[in-house]
Design brief:
single chain, mainly alpha, three-stranded antiparallel sheet, 6% strand, elongated, disordered C terminus
Length: 158
């Protein structure tokens, strides 16, 4: 089972917020901490806001914060929000589906996977808040590219 990049980023955003002493962050801060695409991260943050996981504030002094305490945000809930219709395989259009037992097996495996995630909260994932905060704050920032670096660089994938 592999989660999408969207889900990975959503979990990183929430862990970052849970570990940040102020409890508030911006797209730029999180993108720089994890070296992530700002444009993709904006979509993730928007989705987390719509899902009620974070509160967002625009303008000066803006940013976003957890909408509720970390122990009230279930990892399973976040994954379900970010991975709607999560299935391990697309059996809907398979020629052998009517006689195949794999569909039920994969459904059971997905259920077991989600049952494990449902046992944990964001607080569990961010248990070592001080260690996480130190690692996020210490992330080396790449130097600004020179003109020759920009000409040779390949575009970063989103």
């Amino acid at each position: 089972m592999q989660l999408t990049r969207h889900t990975d980023y959503a979990l990183r955003v929430l862990i970052h917020l849970a570990a940040t002493p102020s409890g508030r962050a911006t797209i730029t801060e999180i993108a720089d901490s994890y070296d992530l695409s700002r444009s993709h991260l904006m979509k993730v943050v928007h989705s987390l806001g719509l899902g009620g996981f974070i509160d967002t504030r625009r303008g000066r002094g803006g940013g976003f914060a957890l909408a509720r305490p970390a122990d009230a945000i279930g990892i399973g809930d976040v994954v379900r929000h970010a991975e709607p219709g999560m299935t391990m395989a697309d059996c809907a259009h398979c020629a052998i589906r009517p006689a195949c037992g794999l569909t039920g097996i994969l459904a059971e495996a997905t259920h077991a996977f989600m049952a494990v995630l449902d046992r944990y909260s964001l607080a569990d994932a961010a248990r070592d808040r001080a260690g996480l905060a130190a690692l996020l704050a210490a992330r080396p920032r790449p130097p600004a590219p020179s003109v020759s670096d920009e000409a040779c660089a390949s575009p970063r994938p989103d």
